[in-house]
């Protein structure tokens, strides 16, 4: 068996036994249920808190509101939880020394990085899948209005953005010693991408739109082709960051 | 045949020159004690041998294969036990050994057989709880099992006994002694009694180089000072012997403790025979006449200052 | 009450998943009494009373080494 396979198995077992998988699945499941429910209940709740006698026209909620909740929650809380859960995945092994026994048995360092990234991707994918399927089911149940389009593609864009941030996390975790340091670097990258949005010339390339413009896609206000360049760049970014992580990690004295 | 050969090894951390031209050779099937003060560079040397650190200069050869940092080919000959081995706490011992075996590329059946053999060697056969519940000593023993899994020709142990209580230490030393002859063992320590207990060769590291190396017998012979201990029948007889003019010569120091004398001869043409001649001329039969062997401790303090 | 009846297909799975997470965290808190910070008396209410976030915070920041 090759080292990637062996170490990937170990990472999956670790995710199950340290409850990483459980956390991600339940949190994303919760989002899946909450998204349509919040969309449904928000107008009612608002109405209750309005002063007596005041009448405003509250829009009737639709499936679009439910998906808007999905993209808001998964990009914010969802991604934060995933990054937090994985922040220590390499740093802890290095500070505790658990890699030493395996590296001295000839475990290749490429396998360590790639298997860890693959395990992160696997859990992130499961989370996104669970959350989007549950949201989809309840949305169809509550709002059978057929107003939402390009769902699979919009979710894919968000997934890819998450994959890009995880690659960034893996790379930064080879640069700094502490798990918090790698989180700070990853956070800084997100801030940086947000700043780049200010420049109109950069915008059509910025991977950030993969997580910010999903609703335009669902409401058919943007063509899918709008995302071609950010997708290409995010994909390249993932590959480049993982390769860089391997290069840095190979030189690291442990 | 040398299992391990180190030539001209240099390593610095910033301005701290830890190794300054270390030369060392470990012959096969020896139990090799690697002795030095804390911070002398024992761990650094070992980490370079197993490829965890990059040497600044010099070569390390394991079973005829040169160690290159970043490549782990030579590691298949080596089993390594770090000073504090760390494991995945959520695994059980057999699961952990299986992971190690798969990484080392052993066939599944072999992994199962070796795991059972080794777990019984280190006394963990009946332990199936997760490693997170292990004591320090149990982790050290599991560490030996993982190091021996691939039947390495060389087992490197970094201070395997330092952190343990006396019972744990004894167990580890017994395990190391039991694999003598099948595997060459290189272990570092600053506990000299451990060395005396199981090693047949030692090397002392100080100031980034070896200051002493060889079999324990050779070293003791080489450093045998011209010291003799003589016990007489009575304290009076001892005092009488001390007062002899022959013992008043330059280069002879005598210390008396009751009926025993410790005599050190430093002059060039004085050796033990002179004392025997003197005893015989005075018709004294001592109760004991002994050439004093230097203890490892006295040697160690002498060479590392 | 009326709302609960109308929306039970939402509340039942939500409560069930929160329950699973809280119980898993509680068992871990009780069985691994070394935390990076805090005490048992601190973590038990955190994982039981703060829905979803409590157990996540415990597993990410609070749990000691395994």
Provide a concise account of the structure shown:
Chain A has 254 residues and is mostly helical. Chain A is 75% helix and 0% strand. The longest helix of chain A is centred in the middle third of the chain and has 34 residues, at 109-142.
Explain this structure.
With 254 residues, chain A is mostly helical. In chain A, 75% of the residues lie in helices and 0% in strands. In chain A, helix 2 (20-49) packs parallel to helix 6 and helix 7 packs parallel to helix 11 (228-251). The two termini of chain A are 25 Å apart. The mean pLDDT of chain A is 90. Chain B has helices at 42-49, 93-104, 108-121, 136-148, 166-178, 192-198, 216-222, 235-242, 272-281, 296-304, and strands at residues 2-13, 16-27, 31-36, 57-62, 65-66, 78-81, 154-158, 184-189, 201-206, 209-215, 227-231, 252-257, 260-265, 288-291. In chain B, strand 12 (252-257) and strand 13 (260-265) form a beta hairpin. In chain B, helix 3 packs across helix 4 and helix 4 (136-148) packs parallel to helix 5. The model of chain B has no long low-confidence stretch (mean pLDDT 86). The termini of chain C are far apart. Chain C has 66 residues and is an all-alpha fold. The mean pLDDT of chain C is 87. Chain C has helices at 2-6, 8-31, 40-49, 53-62. Chains in contact: A-B, A-C, B-C. Chain B binds chain C through residues 88-90, 130, 132, and chain C through 32, 65-66.
């Amino acid at each position: 068996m090759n080292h990637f396979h062996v170490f990937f198995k170990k990472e999956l077992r670790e995710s199950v036994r340290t409850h990483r998988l459980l956390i991600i699945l339940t949190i994303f499941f919760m989002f899946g249920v909450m998204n349509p429910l919040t969309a449904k209940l928000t107008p009612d709740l608002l109405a209750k808190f309005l002063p007596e006698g005041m009448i405003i026209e509250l829009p009737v909620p639709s499936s679009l509101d439910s998906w808007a909740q999905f993209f808001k929650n998964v990009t914010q809380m969802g991604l934060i939880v995933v990054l937090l859960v994985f922040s220590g995945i390499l740093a802890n092994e290095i500070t505790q020394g658990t890699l030493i026994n395996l590296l001295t048995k000839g475990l290749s360092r490429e396998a360590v990085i790639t298997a860890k990234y693959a395990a992160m991707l696997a859990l992130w994918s499961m989370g996104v899948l669970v959350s989007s399927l549950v949201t989809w089911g309840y949305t169809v149940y509550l709002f059978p209005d057929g107003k939402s389009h390009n769902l699979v593609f919009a979710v894919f864009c968000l997934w890819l953005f998450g994959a890009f941030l995880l690659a960034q996390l893996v790379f930064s975790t080879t640069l700094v010693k502490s798990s918090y340091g790698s989180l700070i670097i990853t956070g800084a990258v997100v801030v940086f991408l947000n700043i780049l949005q200010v420049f109109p010339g950069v915008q059509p390339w910025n991977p950030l739109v993969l997580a910010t413009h999903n609703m335009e896609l669902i409401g058919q206000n943007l063509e899918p082709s709008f995302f071609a360049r950010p997708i290409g760049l995010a994909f390249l970014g993932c590959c480049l960051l993982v390769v860089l992580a391997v290069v840095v990690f190979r030189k690291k004295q442990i | 045949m040398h299992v391990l050969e180190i030539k001209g090894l240099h390593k610095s951390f910033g301005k701290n020159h830890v190794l300054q031209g270390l030369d060392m050779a470990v012959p096969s099937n020896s139990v090799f004690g690697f002795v030095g003060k804390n911070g002398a560079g024992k761990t650094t040397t070992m980490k370079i041998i197993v490829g965890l650190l990059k040497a600044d200069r010099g070569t390390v050869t394991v079973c005829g294969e040169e160690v290159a940092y970043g490549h782990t080919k030579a590691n298949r000959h080596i089993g390594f036990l770090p000073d504090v081995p760390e494991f995945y706490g959520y695994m059980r011992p057999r699961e952990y050994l299986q992971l190690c075996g798969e990484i080392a590329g052993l066939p599944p059946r072999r992994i199962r057989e070796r795991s059972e053999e080794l777990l019984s060697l280190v006394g963990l056969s009946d332990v199936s709880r997760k490693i997170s519940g292990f004591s320090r000593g149990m982790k050290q023993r599991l560490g030996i099992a993982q190091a021996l899994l691939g039947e390495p020709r060389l087992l490197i142990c970094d201070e395997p006994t330092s952190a343990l209580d006396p019972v744990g230490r004894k167990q580890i030393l017994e395990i190391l002694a039991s694999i003598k002859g099948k595997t060459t063992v290189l272990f570092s320590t600053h506990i000299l009694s451990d060395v005396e207990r199981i090693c047949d060769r030692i090397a002392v590291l100080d100031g980034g180089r070896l200051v002493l190396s060889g079999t324990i017998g050779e070293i003791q012979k080489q450093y045998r000072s011209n010291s003799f201990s003589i016990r007489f029948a009575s304290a009076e007889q001892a005092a009488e012997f001390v007062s002899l003019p022959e013992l008043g010569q330059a280069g002879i120091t005598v210390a008396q403790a009751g009926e025993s004398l410790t005599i050190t001869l430093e002059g060039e043409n004085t050796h033990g025979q002179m004392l025997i001649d003197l005893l015989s001329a005075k018709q004294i039969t001592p109760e004991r006449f002994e050439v004093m062997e230097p203890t490892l401790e006295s040697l160690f303090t002498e060479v590392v200052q | 009450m009326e709302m609960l009846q109308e929306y039970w297909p939402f509340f039942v799975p939500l409560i069930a998943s929160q329950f699973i997470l809280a119980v898993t965290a509680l068992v871990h808190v009780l069985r691994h009494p070394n935390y990076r910070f805090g005490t048992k008396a601190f973590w038990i209410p955190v994982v039981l009373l703060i829905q979803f976030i409590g157990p996540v915070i415990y597993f990410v920041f609070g749990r000691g080494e395994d």
